[in-house]
## 1
Amino acid sequence: MFNIEEQTMSISLKVRGAIERSSWIRRMFEEGAALIAEYGAENVYDFTLGNPSVEPPAAFRRELRRMAEKPDLGMHRYMNNAGYEETRASVARHIEETSGIPVNSKHIVMTCGAGGALNVTLKTILNPGEEVIILTPFFVEYKFYADNHGGTTKEVWTNPETFQPDIAAIEAAITHNTRAIIINSPNNPTGAVYSAETLTALGRMLDRKQGELGSTIYTISDEPYARLAFDGNSVPPVFRYIRNAVLVTSHSKDLALPGERIGYLAANPSMDDVALFMEGAVFCNRVLGFVNAPALMQRLVAKLQSESVDVTEYQEKRDILYNHLTGLGFEVVKPGGGFYFFPKSPMDDDVEFVRQAQKHNILLVPGSGFGAPGYFRIAYCVEMGIIERSLPAWEKLAKDIGLA
Ligand code: PLP
């Protein structure tokens, strides 16, 4: 129980606690901002934010201009909470083409980004106190999102050699209280792309456990980086491998539109009670207060399902940094997609290592921010000039800490 004095403070104790626990992250950003003010943005190598440096594809501007010049009557009004039929049909066609699974507009809800889709999904499925398995290292918002809807999270480490899910460890973590598992490929923060073998093994294990427990365990597949796969590979489509799967994604990364808040969720048509799940998701999209995904963006992305930013640009950046860092002695699992590295911290204390890097104007996020102390994250979705100018600073840092 809280004491009266605490209870009468202005904001909720839970939110206050969350702010206090993450205050060190804010402090690091403030220190980074001070460095930028002192040395100028071109002389500070800011690898902290997953904010794409590239611009949306040309087709985006073309469609935007066309829409402004020839507006449809009523195009800014309220709509069905699931989103426009035309957009959902276009998204469903794209999923069907890439997965071979017959999906239709009834299986799609347009949302305010992947963050919106994750919250809608968790609200739809969670009873109070139920568990969501998350795979370490993880996107930290998962913990807050599960908590938003009365759930708790259970952390299960991925295989540290590959950052692929550890199926036996996930199986050991499943109980009667497990309602969902969140997977994320290509992964933030590791850049790992889950293989078809991993997804096959996960799907089989989940089918067996669901049979044993007599329950539905949803796999929430968070895929905003799905079109950013390297070396000519593509991300294996989750619906082929996992029956009770909900795909959540957005166009924040593949069309470089994170500020426009446009994404969707899609249910595998073979999911248990799929019609009821969809009805629940449309209801939750409404009562969470989003009401629907932004109208203008829905009309645009309906036309852009086969477009993507230039993946080769990210691949080139990965290669330059990967070769440089491994050459200096950093231990890095080579990412198969996305725009992050998650190297081992050469110092036991990852927060201290990040501070050492700051001295060379290199801004990083400690692994502790992803539930994985002993590592650090590099977001390389920055301009090529920053990567190139940072290379000598990495060398000095490596020398300073006795690595090279
Ligand atoms: N999931 C992961 C793994 C992310 O990295 C992000 C954003 O960085 C999101 C979800 C949220 O994306 P959105 O901008 O679509 O809400």
## 2
Amino acid sequence: PNHYDPIDFKDWWVDSSKTPKMNATMVSLVRNGELQDMLSSIKEFEDSFNSKYHYDWVFLNDEEFTPRFIKAVTEAVSGNAKFGLVPKEHWSYPDFIDQEKAAQTRVDMANIIYGGSESYRFMCRYQSGFFWRHPLMLDYDWYWRVEPSTRYPCNIPEDLFKHMNDNQKIYGFTQTLHEYQETIPSLFDSVLNFTNEHPEYIPHKNFANFVSEDGGESYNGCHYWSNFEVANMKLWRSKQYRQFFDFLDHRGGFFYERHGDAPVHSVFASIFLPFEQIEYLNIGYYHIPFWNLPFEVESNHVSDEEVLEKSKQKYVDLNCQVDPREDFTMDGFSCGSLYFGLNKLKSLGIVSE
Ligand code: GDP
Ligand code: MN
């Protein structure tokens, strides 16, 4: 009865050679108290990337930004800085949520990271379902999420927004991790319920085996770490994602569990996008406590010697000032080796030990 109806992105692409920059913005959800940490991210990000392009930068907050914050940040960015207040109805309980049950959950989950926090849950729900609806964000298609206290210590040699557009990519990540299952016990059950209701939304060749290694029985916890994202907001603005978000929201997992926006974005992108629309953006990046360092990535036919040699050269070319042994990509807590395996790629770092 339901005819095939996956996300239709065929008219999302532009001829980027006709425009100096893409319809894109940096976006940071941030608190006034994080001013210094925001400035340190901006400084390194501008040096490595944005001083070449001057993309706009939208700052969002659930409280009014202080004049001090606005002044300091406006001076630090090379594009237009815009400051937005998150509307109360996007940062509070929807009426279908039982607030006593939510409060009890915070008590029960107090020993899990952020499990006792109410604001963290509003934040994750906001990043899942609302930032792309903010009036300031409606002017743009593409966004790059930048958090306070993140690092960009290597040159970023191309416009990643153009890279995404020109290669017809929709969702770009730089690190992957396993989620703590205690924060998302019912997430995958919700996903399976949704896919049963809407099998017509699933494209023929998706990337579901990145999030489930047992053929869709269970979630392996793998997710793109969403403190870094370069993506097209048409993905989140699609009918398919809006319905998915509403479905999860009504099941209550943002409040009765502690669903993070990273697994929410990740399971959606992995299941509802064709696999080739997800892109590993291999830049130098740090979010506490993990580094991604930009080693060479090649098809697994290429010899180890060649991959190693190219990695060393790349590290020099990009002027990376970080010990290459810090790279987290192939760590067991990362999902890097699964990602590389599924894509028949290899990356070897630059020190063979
Ligand atoms: P973690 O990366 O999971 O440890 O979470 P963070 O504390 O880094 O929060 C994720 C992002 O949301 C960061 O950009 C924070 O600055 C921002 N954030 C978290 N909580 C709040 C909040 O209550 N208000 C505002 N305005 N921003 C927040
Ligand atoms: Mn963070």
